[in-house]
């Protein structure tokens, strides 16, 4: 009989999250987080970027390879696409704080490359105290869920981005009752068929334009 590999211990991040902390204190404390096993193979924790008093918090999935190396979220290809979409939608950078549902890069080594792996539900749950603390510190008007991982972390496992995208609604989230705008993660556009990328990008801009109209109102 083949022995089974025991599940990695995931105590959750709560014990590393300082109470009533501002964004700078959260970023500093996160370097010591051992809430799940993802910290060990990652280069570093990647917490957030942007205005710590922004009116919109954009929540992605997890850092990618470039973000893991630089320690800043959304600086790789998907981040550049997101910034272009925000610009076209008319969302000012000063109104935005960007973070991820999971703060360490989950990957599979393959030769000299590190291949992205989607975080499991257990990783989202383990890392959720950081996101809750960030939202409490920033106090945004709107949470923007970029893709399925962010949506499930904020709203629960029944979330489906294809059914809910583009609708700005007040909802119960892990960070309390909040206005939430779901849309796709920009990486899904880059992974999609090249001939469909222009249309998919336009749809992302249209979703973010809903945010821009709210912030301008």
Task: Please give a structural write-up.
The structure is a single chain. Helices cover 38% and strands 18% of the residues. With 217 residues, it is α/β, with parallel strands linked by helices. It has one domain: Uracil-DNA Glycosylase, subunit E (3-Layer(aba) Sandwich), CATH 3.40.470. Helix 3 (77-89) crosses helix 8. The longest helix is centred in the last third of the chain and has 20 residues, at 197-216. The radius of gyration is 17 Å and the shape is globular. The mean pLDDT is 95.
- Total number of helices: 8
Question: Low-confidence spans: pLDDT under 50, at least 5 residues?
Answer: none
Alpha-carbon distance between the two ends: 64 Å
Q: Which strand-content bin applies to the residues?
A: 15-25%
CATH superfamily: Uracil-DNA glycosylase-like domain
Oligomer: single chain
Total of domains: 1
User: Considering DSSP H and I runs of 4 or more, what fraction of the residues is helical?
Assistant: 25-40%
The succession of helices and strands, N to C, reads: HEEHHEEEHEHHEEHH
Rough shape? globular
CATH topology: Uracil-DNA Glycosylase, subunit E
Kindly report the spatial arrangement of strands forming the biggest sheet: 1-3-2-6-8-7
Task: Please state the second-level CATH architecture.
Answer: 3-Layer(aba) Sandwich
Q: Structural class given helices, strands, pairing?
A: alpha/beta
> What is the residue-mean pLDDT, rounded to a whole number?
95
| Rg of Cα set | 17 Å
CATH class: Alpha Beta
Task: Find the count of extended strands (DSSP E, 2+ residues).
Answer: 8
Largest sheet: 6 strands, mixed
């Amino acid at each position: 009989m083949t022995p089974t590999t025991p599940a990695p211990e995931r105590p959750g991040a709560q014990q590393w999250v300082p109470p009533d902390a501002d964004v700078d204190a959260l970023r500093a404390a996160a370097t010591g987080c051992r809430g799940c096993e993802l910290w060990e193979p990652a280069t570093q924790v990647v917490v957030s970027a942007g205005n710590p008093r922004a009116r919109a918090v954009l929540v992605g999935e997890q850092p990618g390879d470039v973000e893991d190396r630089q320690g800043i979220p959304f600086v790789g290809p998907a981040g550049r696409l997101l910034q272009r979409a925000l610009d076209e939608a008319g969302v000012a950078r000063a109104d935005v704080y960007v973070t991820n549902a999971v703060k360490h890069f989950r990957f599979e080594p393959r030769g000299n490359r590190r291949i992205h792996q989607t975080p499991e539900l257990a990783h989202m749950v383990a890392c959720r105290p950081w996101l809750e603390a960030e939202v409490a510190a920033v106090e945004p008007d709107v949470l923007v869920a970029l893709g399925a991982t962010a949506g499930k972390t904020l709203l629960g496992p029944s979330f489906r981005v294809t059914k809910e995208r583009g609708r700005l609604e007040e909802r119960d989230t892990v960070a309390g009752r909040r206005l939430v705008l779901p849309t796709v993660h920009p990486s899904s556009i880059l992974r999609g068929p090249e001939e469909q990328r222009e249309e998919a990008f336009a749809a992302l801009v249209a979703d973010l334009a809903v945010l821009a109209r709210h912030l301008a109102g």
